[in-house]
Structures are given as structure tokens and as C-alpha cells.
Design goal:
Layout: E1 2-7, H1 12-23, E2 30-36, H2 42-49, E3 54-56, H3 65-78, E4 83-86, H4 95-100, E5 105-109, H5 121-128, E6 132-139, E7 149-156, H6 163-186, E8 190-193, E9 196-199
Helix pairs in contact: 1-6
Bound molecules: 5-O-phosphono-beta-D-ribofuranosylamine.
Length: 203
């Protein structure tokens, strides 16, 4: 299968996906391109060093969201991917864009959705005093951080946590659950049908 990964920053989830493709945990799948909205993204350098084609669609060069999305879509479709994974991709997408890839595009979000959509999830979790926090992989739909949930991983919030220590614990969980969800997706076991997630033969 052909997978395109969209990134904006550091690229640790991208690295987890690449390692899982290499080890076969994500079976018979190649990351055919890594695309960023941000030219300085460390994730782009990481991909280039791994010999993966990289593209940048700099959102600052576009007057509005729909022209940016059209350019991004053209770049993605150039690589004819079966699936698209957002891995720390920090731009909101238009409903038309989400619909075009519906059922084929997944995202990882650093909270137990529907708690704490949007930004600064770890600060929000600490401010609310929740005792469990975590990460969610979901299908991308027109609603930000609200597509059908595929898998979640929970971690404890400890009394001495600050944003950094909590973020690190959640990130380690992201690196476990995202490759797993993508493995299900590329193997055809995971589908979105009428807005609901089905996973065949879940063990
Ligand atoms: C992750 O926490 C992801 O869930 C969030 O942004 C962060 C990206 O980290 N949306 P990385 O670029 O994968 O290291």
C-alpha cells in the first residue's frame, strides 16, 4: 500500500510509522511521500534523510484556506496514495478536503477525545485535574478532531506532572497506537462505514 504522511513539526510519529513499515508491523506498505505546510519542519529533513520524497506547501503563500487545500490535494494526489496519515499536521482542513479523502485519512490527537480537542491539550488536562489522559487515533472528517475514533491509549496523570512530563508520557503512547491503527487500515481490517468504525477479527 502507498501511504502519504502530512507533518508540520518534529516528526516523532513519522519516525514511529517509518520504523513500523520497516519492521513489517505495518505490512506491505511504503511511505511514498512526506508533505509539510512548513518548510522548516524537522520531519521533512528526517524523511529526506531516509530517502523519501518530500514536498512543502507553505500555507503562508496562499490567500485562503481553500486555495491552500487545493494545492495540498494536488501534491498528495500526485503520489496516488491509498491512505493518508496526519502526524502532527497543524493546519485545519476544509470540509471539502476532508470529504475527498474520507475513510482513507487518519489523524492522531494528543488527548482522549472528545476531551480537549484543539491545541494545548496537556495544559488543559492539567488545568482540569483529570487523572487519565492520552491519545486518540481517528478518521478525519469535516469536523475538527471529531471523526470516528479508531483507538485510544490512556496514561495516568501524576501529581508531580508538568506539561513536559505529561506530553512525553502521551507521546510514547502515540508511538504505540498510531502504527497499530495504520497497520489495521492498510490491511483492510479497519473501515469507516456510515460514520462508524469497524475492525475485523479484532483480537
Ligand atoms: C503530537 O503530539 C501529535 O499528536 C500532535 O502534535 C505532536 C506531533 O509530534 N498533534 P511529532 O511531530 O509527531 O513528533
Amino acid at each position: 500500500k502507498r501511504l502519504v504522511v502530512l507533518v508540520s513539526g518534529r516528526g516523532s510519529n513519522l519516525q514511529a510509522i517509518l520504523s513500523a513499515c520497516e519492521s513489517g508491523q505495518i505490512p506491505a506498505t511504503e511511505v511514498v511521500a512526506v508533505i509539510s505546510n512548513c518548510p522548516q519542519a524537522a520531519a521533512l529533513a528526517l524523511a529526506a534523510a531516509a530517502g523519501i520524497p518530500v514536498r512543502c506547501v507553505d500555507h503562508r503563500r496562499f490567500g485562503d484556506r481553500s486555495s491552500f487545500d487545493a494545492a495540498l490535494r494536488a501534491q498528495i494526489d500526485d503520489f496516488a496514495p491509498d491512505h493518508i496519515a496526519l502526524a502532527g499536521f497543524m493546519r485545519r482542513l476544509t470540509p471539502e478536503f476532508a470529504q475527498h479523502y474520507e475513510g482513507r485519512m487518519v489523524n492522531i490527537h494528543p488527548s482522549l477525545l472528545p476531551a480537549f480537542p484543539g491545541l494545548h491539550t496537556h495544559a488543559q488536562a492539567l488545568a482540569e485535574g483529570v487523572k487519565l489522559h492520552g491519545a486518540t487515533v481517528h478518521f478525519v472528517t469535516a469536523d475538527l478532531d471529531a471523526g470516528p475514533i479508531i483507538v485510544q491509549g490512556a496514561v495516568p496523570v501524576l501529581a508531580q506532572d508538568d506539561v513536559d512530563s505529561l506530553a512525553a508520557r502521551v507521546l510514547a503512547m502515540e508511538h504505540r497506537i498510531y502504527p497499530q491503527a495504520i497497520a489495521w487500515l492498510v490491511s483492510g481490517r479497519l473501515r469507516m462505514e456510515q460514520g462508524k468504525v469497524t475492525i475485523d477479527g479484532e483480537k
